[in-house]
């Protein structure tokens, strides 16, 4: 459903100004910081302008079941993003 952009209810803006869409329930399961948005019915827009499209996309792919292949630089930035979003599994390895 995410690939077809169906029923997306959270959109994350990246440092390039690009937007990554996802399902809030999926992201909230892996990134506790998003749980505060679960009680509403609105579409959520989040600014993560410190992080690139590659890093945000990797985080979303992780939440949906795994990351195929990322560069070492993206992996380091993903670690920083995971720390910001309170994902202990990614932070602790």
TrEMBL record:
PROSITE patterns in the record: BTB (PS50097)
Every BTB domain range: 8-72
Pfam families given in the database record: BTB (PF00651)
Span of the signal peptide: none
Superkingdom as given in the UniProt entry: Eukaryota
Record Gene3D superfamilies: Potassium Channel Kv1.1, Chain A (3.30.710.10)
InterPro entries, per database record: BTB/POZ_dom (IPR000210), SKP1/BTB/POZ_sf (IPR011333)
Designated name of the protein: BTB domain-containing protein
Organism: Hymenolepis diminuta (Rat tapeworm)
Native organism taxonomy: Eukaryota, Metazoa, Spiralia, Lophotrochozoa, Platyhelminthes
């Amino acid at each position: 459903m995410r690939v077809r952009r169906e029923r997306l209810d959270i959109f994350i803006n990246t440092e390039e100004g690009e937007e990554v869409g996802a399902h809030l329930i999926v992201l909230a399961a892996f990134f506790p910081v998003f749980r505060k948005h679960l009680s509403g019915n609105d579409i959520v827009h989040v600014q993560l302008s410190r992080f690139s499209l590659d890093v945000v996309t990797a985080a979303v792919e992780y939440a949906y079941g795994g990351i195929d292949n990322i560069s070492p630089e993206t992996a380091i930035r993903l670690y920083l993003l995971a720390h910001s979003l309170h994902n202990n599994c990614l932070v602790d390895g």
